[in-house]
Structure formats: C-alpha cells, structure tokens
Design a protein that fits this description.
35% helix, alpha+beta, three-stranded antiparallel β-sheet, Rubredoxin-like, rod-shaped
C-alpha cells in the first residue's frame, strides 16, 4: 500500500490549523477536524512549494503570541526602570 501523502500524481489541499501550522491533505479524504483547506486542489509539489513560501516561522501561533507579550513586558520594564548615568555611578 502506498502512502497517500506521497503520491506525486495526486491532488491535495493545503490545510492550516488554528495554530497557523500547515500541511497537505489528499482531496479524496475528508479534511480532519481542526484543519481548514485553503485554496483549490493542487498537485503535491505546488502545495509543498506554497507551504515553504508561506510557513516561514515554525513556532505555533500561541507560542509566537506569548513570546511577543513577554518581549513587550520586558521592554516596558526597561522603560519604567531608569538607568543611572555615568555621573550617578
């Protein structure tokens, strides 16, 4: 039995989940819960090329957002904490 995800002649959807993670999905199978097909069915390589161009940050969306919040908090603390000048040292 061949793997349906490796059929070079098959048609696929690009699918994305709520964490903005991408994959391909064969058109003859129902898209699984939690994933959304984007665009029209395409040959496998076109889908993979699209994913390579689009999914440039492998971190899940929730992690990216948390890291952005953490960075903003650190930045706010730096602004709120005055630094001593060389004369004060």
């Amino acid at each position: 039995m061949t793997n349906p995800f490796e059929d070079e002649n098959g048609e696929y959807f690009v699918v994305v989940n709520d964490e903005e993670q991408y994959s391909i999905w064969p058109t003859f199978r129902e898209v699984p819960a939690g994933w959304t097909a984007i665009g029209d069915p395409r040959p496998r390589q076109e889908c993979l090329d699209f994913i390579e161009r689009t999914w440039t940050d492998m971190r899940p969306k929730s992690l990216r957002e948390q890291m952005e919040r953490d960075a903003a908090e650190r930045s706010a603390r730096r602004v709120a904490t005055p630094t001593k000048t060389s004369q004060e040292l």
